[in-house]
Amino acid sequence: MDLYITAARALRVDITHILQTHLHADFISGHMDLAQKTGARIYVAKSAKCTFDHVPLSEGDTIELEDMVLQVLETPGHAPEHLSYVVIDKSCSDSPVRVFVGDTLFVGDVGRPDLFPDIAQELAGQLYHSLHDELLQLPDYVEVYPVHRAGSLCGRAIGAKWTNTIGYERRFNAALQIKDKSAFV
Predict the structure, then answer these.
(1) DSSP letter string over 5-66?
(2) CATH fold of the domain at 2-184
(3) What is the pTM of this model?
(4) pLDDT tens for each residue of 25-58
(5) CA distance 111 to 155
């Protein structure tokens, strides 16, 4: 967490928002400590029903940060309460330019829905919808920023690159080539 504070100081910016894509038992994000040290608000899915102080978000909500607008997409599948954030940089355009996808989409892979074994089938169906009906509706040029890269257990075949584009993933991501929902699940 101190890494974030140090990086913010080096860039001469303040941490004012902590945007969670999902809550998960396999990591400790430090969001509570970071909020306490910086005064930043924590933003998390309303469906997570968190008991800590936070701003609850749902599909279609927006967050404005200077020249940027972040549009909230509910993208469950890897986790039931998963969110993605589509970024529009108003200083350049009214079109989306990047998307923070958490563990829904990776470079070369998609998030695992089996980390919740009791609802894995349901989550796999939701993941299919989140990918095909939400993220893949974005323009090809939109940059994709996932949380993990190669070596993470949250995917099966995650690539080593940090980022990619929707268009590249649409064309080359093996999981996205499965067009039939039943086959995908």
Answers:
(1) HHHHHHHT----EEE-S---TT----HHHHHHHH-PEEEEEGGG---SS-EEE-TT-EEEET
(2) Metallo-beta-lactamase; Chain A (3.60.15)
(3) 0.93
(4) 555 678 888 999 999 999 999 999 999 999 999 9
(5) 5
